[in-house]
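To: structure subgroup
Subject: Chain for Friday's discussion

All,

I'm putting the inputs and outputs inline so they're searchable in the archive.
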Amino acid sequence: RATDVPHLARLAREHADLTELPTNLSFATCDERTLPAEDHSFDYVVSWSAFEHIADPTAVLREIRRILTPDGVLFIQLWPFYDSAHGTHLVDWFPDGFAQYRHTDEEIARTLRASDDQVMGAEMLEAYRTLNRITADDLHGALRRAGLRTAKLALRADAVHLPDEVSHLPFSRIGISGIKLLAIPAAEPEPQPAGVEAAGAAAQIPTERG
């Protein structure tokens, strides 16, 4: 869908004290796996809270690798990872956390459908259902397959109470809630092994939620 430029201009006035958007700022719409840009045309690419929603992370990262200049830099922020306490993105409905393991999908759907704000409830239910369930290790693998090398890394880990339903899961999955990283083009992309699915799609842990 088209970018709501007037809305962005209002936000710029309210939060950045800008009377107007920069004249050299332009917008383009991409599809799920391709970016509308020429090869090696960007020095910087920034992704904020997007990669947990992207259906094929490796394909998108390959596109980012394609449009980066040889000395370009990719910044990724991802929060929250699916297996972490609020990985459902539904903290307003399940503030105690780990709803994806403590409740069935049917229970989660009923709770959101009973929201006072029906539109928001429906939007967040769709967002929950389409999460790719990527992990930190999945993201690392996707970056390497796309020909990107991580140069700087910061993991986010929060102190959380662990209910019985998640106590058997690896700490690396339930303990890492988010990530920030800088990646740069590697010399050569790693070959993708035969039969490898999109990151996150084939590596989901059974939830044992019934």
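Points worth raising on Friday:
The longest helix spans residues 5-16.
The chain has a mean pLDDT of 91.

D.
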